[in-house]
């Protein structure tokens, strides 16, 4: 027999280590770019978003599946922006009034201008070309 006793890990130490490892995993998940392993992306071609009158005057509408937000001024002009956060590439999934909030890290953007309202993002959202054709909104990359 050697002169050293085998080391033992207490149950409390093992549970504490498991909790730390689980928390670290959650942090990594929050920093990932989208679900399903693929990164979310803004439209690379024009997309039909539906009826133009669904966007209220003075308000905005979030099109989660297309990663686009469209706003409309009181006088009827439309603006569109990508809803891929400029901080870490996460898809933005929350719109309240005209304020977009990124679920990953809490960056906030103005849906009418694309400007950053709250860090950690520092770069505005990408503006997209938008037009109304036959009563429908079409948005896509700038030409």
Automatic annotation (TrEMBL):
InterPro entries: Rieske_2Fe-2S, Rieske_2Fe-2S_sf, Rieske_Fe-S_prot, Rieske_Fe-S_prot_C, TAT_signal. This is Cytochrome bc1 complex Rieske iron-sulfur subunit. The keyword Glycoprotein does not apply. Iron-sulfur subunit of the cytochrome bc1 complex, an essential component of the respiratory electron transport chain required for ATP synthesis. The bc1 complex catalyzes the oxidation of menaquinol and the reduction of cytochrome c in the respiratory chain. The bc1 complex operates through a Q-cycle mechanism that couples electron transfer to generation of the proton gradient that drives ATP synthesis. Its cofactor is [2Fe-2S] cluster. Keywords: 2Fe-2S, Disulfide bond, Iron, Iron-sulfur, Metal-binding. The keyword Iron-sulfur applies. Residues 46-139 form the Rieske domain. Gene3D superfamilies: Rieske [2Fe-2S] iron-sulphur domain.
